[in-house]
Amino acid sequence: MPETDTTPAPTAPMGRRERKKAATRQAIADAALRLFLERGYDDVGIREIADAADVSTTTLFKHFPVKEALVFDEDADKEARLLDAVRERPQGQSIPAALREHALRYRTAAAGGDARFTAFFDLVNSTPALRDYVQGMWLRHANALARTIAEESGLPADDPTCAALAHFALEAPRTARSHDDPRQAVTRAFDLLENGWHTLASGG
């Protein structure tokens, strides 16, 4: 998926082997997305992608166990950043506010008229296999976020208010994609979540 933030988070320096693996993974993902956008997801085979990336199919599957994962190559990293936004928020900042900042930083670029994002979302929306995969990702992220919200709030893991906040926090950026001003749309949606969460937290 096209990246929405070009500034990498600080990480420990990678060794030579890790850099080579990361470069190979990126080359495979770039080749796959290029071919998918050119010809359509269903009309591109795994061997073609491997050839375009100059790797074997065995190497490709070491990095991407299923074809759908080629389109969403940063899924695990995106989930980690989402959960870190809650766990590592500044002292005194509410969970909805932390999630709003995360959404504004990583999610709204897709609604900003970038042709690459438009093409990417058209590809996903027009491919049943990718739509199903996205739904599975969405549910997994929502469940992980709900658990993290519960942990940070001292609430039971199955607390329905945490599940609801996670659901709407993930949905808000998606509903803003077609808005004329996506940043304003996201901000207003999270203002609603902030007010509701504050009422619950205060016992009102």
Provide a concise account of the structure shown.
The protein is mainly α and 204 residues long. Helices cover 67% and strands 0% of the residues.
Query: How many domains comprise the coordinates?
Result: 2
Q: From the helix content, strand content and strand pairing, which structural class follows?
A: mainly alpha
First and last CA, distance: 41 Å
Order of helices and strands: HHHHHHHHH
Radius of gyration: 19 Å
- Determine the mean pLDDT: 86
State the CATH topology of the largest domain. Answer: Tetracycline Repressor, domain 2
Set down the secondary structure blueprint.
Elements: H1 16-39, H2 46-53, H3 57-63, H4 75-87, H5 95-106, H6 115-125, H7 128-153, H8 160-175, H9 182-201
Helix pairs in contact: 1-2, 4-5, 4-7, 5-8, 5-9, 7-8, 8-9
Describe the overall structure.
This protein has about 200 residues and is mainly α. The protein is built from nine helices and no strands. The longest helix has 26 residues, at about 130-155.
Structural key phrases:
9 helices; 204 residues; elongated; 0% strand; Tetracycline Repressor, domain 2; 67% helix; Arc Repressor Mutant, subunit A; disordered N terminus; 2 domains; mainly alpha
